[in-house]
Design brief:
It is a single chain. The chain is mainly β. It has one domain. It contains one helix and eight strands, in the order E-H-E-E-E-E-E-E-E. Strand 2 and strand 3 form a beta hairpin. The relative contact order is 0.25.
């Protein structure tokens, strides 16, 4: 059985730019489950899941899910208590 390879948040830099129209890998996000605040680049990303799955590096909880369907990208951010603007 093959395991899914985990990447860091830099792997979704282009996807984040497409959705948010800004460079977001340096943006601090706060996990709903454990309260950790860290740059998106530090999150754990799985590209081979159904869609793109982003998890908290501290507790493993789901932060974000991106799914492409019928030419659009659907985004679920329920795992984030906050996603701030990236530092200038």
């Amino acid at each position: 059985m093959r395991t899914v390879d985990a990447l860091d948040g830099n792997a979704i830099g282009g996807l984040l730019r497409e959705v948010f129209r800004a460079e977001m890998t340096a943006a601090p996000g706060t996990c709903v489950a454990c309260g950790t605040t860290a740059p998106v680049a530090e999150a754990v990303v799985y590209l081979r899941a159904p869609g793109t799955v982003v998890r908290c590096r501290t507790c493993g909880s789901l932060l974000m899910v991106f799914v492409r369907k019928e030419g659009m990208t659907c985004v679920d951010l329920r795992g984030l208590a906050a996603l701030d603007a990236p530092p200038a």
